[in-house]
């Protein structure tokens, strides 16, 4: 099984609750991941100005 260690992550959104208002955000966190999906925060770089 693949593993991943992320040190000093600026912000980790946990989405650990069905209610988004109750999900946790971990700041300056170190997390160890074993067999799960991790995606980076996405920024909308494509927009149309009117």
Care to describe what's here?
The chain is mostly beta strands and 50 residues long. The protein has one domain (1-50). It contains no helices and two strands. The protein has strands at 3-13, 25-34. The protein has a two-stranded antiparallel sheet with strand order 1-2. It is extended and about 50 Å long. It starts with a strand and ends in a 16-residue tail after the last strand.
Termini separation (Å)? 49 Å
Largest sheet: 2 strands, antiparallel
User: What general form does the structure show?
Assistant: extended
Helicity level: under 10%
Gyration radius from CA atoms, angstroms: 14 Å
Secondary-structure-based class equals mainly beta
Low-confidence stretches: none
H and E order: EE
Q: How do the strands line up in the largest sheet?
A: 1-2
In short:
By secondary structure, the chain is mainly beta. It has no helices and two strands. The model has no long low-confidence stretch (mean pLDDT about 80).
Task: Walk me through the topology.
Elements: E1 3-13, E2 25-34
Key descriptive features of the protein:
50 residues, two-stranded antiparallel sheet, mainly beta, 42% strand
């Amino acid at each position: 099984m693949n593993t991943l260690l992320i040190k000093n992550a600026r912000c980790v959104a946990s989405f650990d609750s069905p209610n988004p208002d109750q999900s946790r955000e971990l700041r300056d966190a170190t997390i160890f991941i074993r067999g799960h999906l991790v995606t980076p925060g996405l920024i909308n770089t494509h927009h149309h100005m009117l």
